[in-house]
Design a protein that fits this description.
Blueprint (H helix, E strand, L loop, with lengths): L1 H15 L2 H8 L3 H4 L7 E6 L3 H12 L4 E7 L10 E6 L6 H13 L8 E6 L3 H4 L9 H14 L3 H11 L6 H6 L3 E7 L22 H11 L5 H7 L10 E7 L1 H14 L3 E9 L3 H18 L7 E7 L13 H12 L6 E7 L11 E5 L2 H7 L4 H6 L3 H7 L3 E2 L10 E7 L2
Parallel strand pairs: 1-2, 1-4, 2-3, 4-5, 5-6, 7-8
Antiparallel strand pairs: 8-12, 9-10, 9-12, 10-11
Helix pairs in contact: 1-12, 2-4, 7-8, 8-10, 13-14
Length: about 425
């Protein structure tokens, strides 16, 4: 029953942060409505939730809009009148990324001050919307992105590098749209909701500096060609006067929804944090230890309860297996709650995909480790090889939601009945 409750809470929490309502609310903003009818309206939508955001805008605004949608492979749900739709690589960009970006830029060329670019942004936009800066190749971008993902750099560090190597990030897209006004609607997947970090800030003044970008290269010992170091040394725009930005969804809203739904099912909710940013397996171990504490002492809250944490953990790759940060979180938690009854822990990406897999994350209980041991599978060895996907699959513990259409970081929940 606990797993059924967990899946219900997850489904309803994700439903609460789907982009349709967020876009509808944003398009009632006076900063947008005051510009309607003045000139052209160009829709530019990027990210894992790009299709659903664009479809919501199309339904609200009606016919006559033109523009481009760029989303992850298998995240488009069909044609949208007046909009070109592209699917491209994520988390590493590919040729379709460049193709979609070039098409999007064609729609915003030669605009006037009366024109408006409705810029719909969601997580994943950093990889899906890209045109390398002069002197940078697609291979360069793919190589450095892969290095950053493998070394454990956080999303802000990754985006700092992307912005300085890009021709459209770090405020550069807004410059390309000028003198048209850019009305940006954002589903945030970045802790703290920094506009210059979400999708690498194509229409936000860039708070990062070239000095910081070069320091990140040094910090992680990345292998970078001398020509790229020269590009990284060039500064990004620090001031933009043609942009209005509205953040309409975030991990905070996701955690709040999870708490409210848990309470409706009879669990006392406790939101630990919405800024979780540590190693995935360490976070999983911590969540397990909190579950044990609840059962033994009633701290920090008495059962039945739902312990909730939102954010985005990291994984340091030491092996060649398959998995993602939420799967490593769940597998580590399984080890920590082994033998316990009345505890279920789940961790998932709100977009429905975790790492380069078809799983959103994992859902485990006190029996999961025993099931794996009976099949000759050792959790420490699996984690060493970063092969959480196959281990969780063997225990029937993968959490499969399919693409959700939104992307507001990750959420982990421990349900404890006592």
């Amino acid at each position: 029953m606990l797993k059924d409750d967990m899946k219900y809470i997850i489904d309803k929490a994700i439903e609460a942060v789907l982009p349709e309502n967020a876009v509808k609310e944003a398009l009632n903003n006076p900063a947008f409505t005051s510009r309607k009818g003045k000139g052209k309206l160009i829709v530019s939508s990027i990210g894992k939730a790009a299709w659903r955001m664009a479809k919501a805008a199309s339904d609200i605004l009606g016919s006559g809009i033109t523009g481009t949608v760029i989303t992850k492979y298998d995240h488009s749900m069909g044609d949208i009148s007046g909009l070109e739709i592209f699917e491209a690589g994520h988390p590493v960009l590919d040729e379709n990324t460049l193709k979609g970006t070039r098409a999007l830029l064609e729609h915003v060329r030669n605009l006037t001050a009366d024109d408006t670019v409705l810029f719909l942004v969601s997580g994943g936009g950093s990889a899906l919307f890209e045109l390398p800066a002069e002197g940078v190749t697609l291979d360069d971008m793919q190589n450095i992105t892969s290095q950053l993902l493998a070394c454990g750099a956080d999303i802000v560090e990754i985006n700092t590098i992307r912005k300085h190597l890009s021709g459209v990030k770090g405020g550069k897209f807004a410059k390309l749209c000028a003198p048209a006004h850019v009305f940006m609607v954002v589903l945030s997947d970045v802790l703290g909701d920094r506009l210059d970090s979400i999708a690498s800030g194509p229409a936000a003044p860039d708070m990062s500096t070239s000095e910081e970008a070069l320091a990140i290269i040094k910090k992680y010992g990345l292998n970078v060609k001398p020509e790229l170091l020269k590009v990284l040394a060039q500064e990004t725009p620090k001031n933009l006067d043609n942009v209005t930005s509205v953040i309409t969804g975030s991990v905070t809203a996701l955690c709040k929804a999870a708490g409210e739904i848990s309470e409706s099912k009879g669990y006392t909710p406790l939101i630990l944090t919405t800024t979780m940013a540590c190693e995935a397996r360490e976070a999983g171990s911590l969540m397990a230890s909190i579950a044990r504490e609840v059962l033994t002492s009633g701290r920090p809250v008495k059962a039945p309860c739902a312990i909730i944490a939102g954010g985005e953990t990291v994984v340091h790759l030491t092996g060649k297996g398959m998995g993602g940060r939420n799967q490593e979180f769940a597998l580590s938690a399984a080890q920590g709650i082994s033998g316990l009854e009345n505890v279920v822990i789940a961790s998932l990406g709100s977009d429905g995909t975790d790492g380069p897999t078809d799983a959103a994350g994992g859902i485990v209980d006190g029996k999961t480790e025993a099931v794996l041991k009976s099949k000759g599978i050792s959790i420490p060895e699996v984690l060493k090889n970063n092969d959480a996907y196959n281990a969780l699959k063997a225990a029937d513990a993968l959490l499969m939601t399919g693409p959700t259409g939104t992307n507001v970081n990750d959420v982990a929940i421990a349900l404890i009945k006592g």
